[in-house]
Amino acid sequence: MSDWDSVTVIRKRPADRAKVTRSESAVNSARRAGAAIATEKKSTLTNAGHANRDHQRIAKLDRDNDVAPPPKVDVSVGRALQKARQEKGITQKDLAQKINEKPQVVNDYESGRAIPNQQVLGKLERALGVKLRGKNIGEPLTFGKKK
To answer: 92, 102 in Cβ contact below 8 A?
Structure first.
């Protein structure tokens, strides 16, 4: 027998293996032929479906735990700062230059818009000679002298 007469079939599909069809007409023809039919519905649950619910829960937690804005300088500090600056007869720009800060910083402290920074408040106290922190805001600095 020659090689031309023999036929080798690789991976032939067995006859008893289930066939997957997606069309309604193929399912109906199999029913008419009396074949066993099993229909399965694909699950739509995937990881993406769970992630959406998780994000909704996280967003709800974020809405519940709103972070309060940082505290601003008290208005009494701004008034005491402005009064001391005007008594010394210097402008906001001159005061800013003296404490090595921008004029906008001095303006923010006087108007009560600034977030308190202890270093800047300390510089302002030393430059003006007035207390801007603690209980006795607006009183002259004593530099450690007891009354």
So the answer is: no
pLDDT at 135: 87
For the chain, what percentages of helix, strand and coil (3-state, to nearest 5) are there?
45, 0, 50
The two structure tokens encoding residue 69 = 């804005």
Torsion of Cα atoms, 80 then 82 then 87 then 91, to 10°: 150
**CB-count exposure of residue 40 (10 Å: 0-12, 13-18, 19+):** exposed
Least confident of 4-13, 104-113, 126-135: 4-13
With 0-12 / 13-18 / 19 or more C-beta atoms within 10 angstroms meaning exposed / middle / buried, residue 130 is buried
54: its two tokens: 């998780």
pTM: 0.53
Q: Please list the alpha-helical segments (H only) found in the chain.
A: 24-33, 47-64, 75-88, 92-98, 103-111, 118-128
- The string of pLDDT tens digits covering residues 36-86 is 777 777 666 666 555 556 667 777 766 666 667 788 999 999 999 999 999
* C-alpha neighbours within 13 Å on the C-beta side of residue 124: 31
